Amino acid sequence: MADIRSPIPGTFYRRPSPEDAPYKSEGDAVAVGDVVGLVEVMKSFIEVKSEVVGKVKAFKVENEEPVSAGAVLVELED
Amino acid sequence: MTFKVLNTGLLTTIQDLGRPGYFHLGIPISGAMDRLSLRAANLLVGNDEGAAALETVFMGPQLEFEKDAMVAVTGAELPPRVDGEEKPTWTAFKVKAGQVLSFDYLREGARAYIAISGGITTDVYLGSRSTYAIGALGGYEGRALAVGDMVPFGDNGKVKEGRSLEASLRRMPGNPAELRVLPGLYWRLITEEAGRNFFDDEWKVAPEADRMGVRFRGGRPMTFQEREQPFGAGSDPSNIVDGCYSYGSIQVPGGTEPIVLHRDAVSGGGYFTLGAVISADMDLIGQLQPHTPTRFVKVDMEQALAARKERKAQLARIEEALKHQ
Question: The CATH number of A2-77 is which of 3.40.50.2300, 2.40.50.100, 3.30.70.1400, 3.50.50.60?
């Protein structure tokens, strides 16, 4: 069991743009380097990438919610 | 000798106390957004208080040192690690040649200052090493650090490891943050009600806040006094005939979202400014995270000058504390 955390504080987005599908949904497989969301801060959008392999168990932060640095965004299961 | 940038973090720039004296030419003052923390970091490692150091925001860099150095990290609570081993903030610690300095997740604040004994020794431009990235001047080739940069630093072996500044000598914003404001020349352009609302409402730091300015939202929109817009001013009631902006001045485009101009701001423009955050509180703005609730507190000139004096006294207390370590 691993968590994917936000590297920075900002606003979390689950999709690349409002028209697109979410990067990942519950039950999806996650590979190393897969993008699971964006965090917006200082006019930049930072991709949050997984450093581990797993399957999405749950998103702990809703789309467009504020996050703090180190906050768990996604819970993974094996 | 140098340190090598293995990873940049989000935005890491070389900053000192800034480049005053050229604002009338449109070159901003730049320098650390939290100058007390920069000074403290430098003093901890035995540098002059205004030596060039690194300012890093929200997420630290990874740096590999080519020679031994003493390092101190102040400002935001961004725990440093040397080859993975956590080190205290606001404390001088040793990094040996070949070791890597990295950082844990940000715990509090926004900007950390990383001072290195001897100070960063890139070229001085117009009296300062501060990076003004938009103007491509100062710092490391006029830009934020990039992976692979070899950043030169000086030499000084004067201080002992473990010199530290206790919590009472540090300063961070509360929650809600309180920023003291001195109303200015254009205060008369808004209605009395708008003036009251500005100080009564709770605002929140917008995520797009950067070194130029910090935007706040969430308060009620402002209403303006009836007036015929003078020749040369735009048609929006928040427009004026172009005027000068000061460090700390608060513009409110369209009367909706106040923006406090900070170290890399433009020096003039056509929005009214309702006043300025007092100089003593500008450091606090550098430590605001996105979405932090913030109140503006009205002060007069006497209170602003007393606050400035208190900041000077705090710096003197820091210097005194380090004399005995």
Answer: 2.40.50.100
Write down the pTM of the prediction. Answer: 0.94
Give me B297's structure tokens: 């507190």
Distance CA B165, CA B325 (A): 10
Chain A with chain B: Cβ pairs closer than 8 A: 49
ipTM: 0.84
H helices of B257-324, in order, are 279-285, 301-323
CATH for B177-310? 2.40.100.10
Strand order in the sheet with A54-59: A2-5, A72-77, A54-59, A29-30
Task: Among B11, B59, B208, select the one facing A69 at the smallest CB separation.
Answer: B59
Q: A9, exposed or middle or buried, with CB in 10 Å at 0-12, 13-18, 19+?
A: buried
Angle at alpha carbon of residue B163, lines to B158 and B165, rounded to 5°: 135
Over residues B210-221, mean pLDDT? 96
Q: For A43, name the nearest residue in chain B, comparing CA atoms only.
A: B208
Which residue of A67, A68, A73 to mutate against B (max B Cβ within 10 Å)? Answer: A68
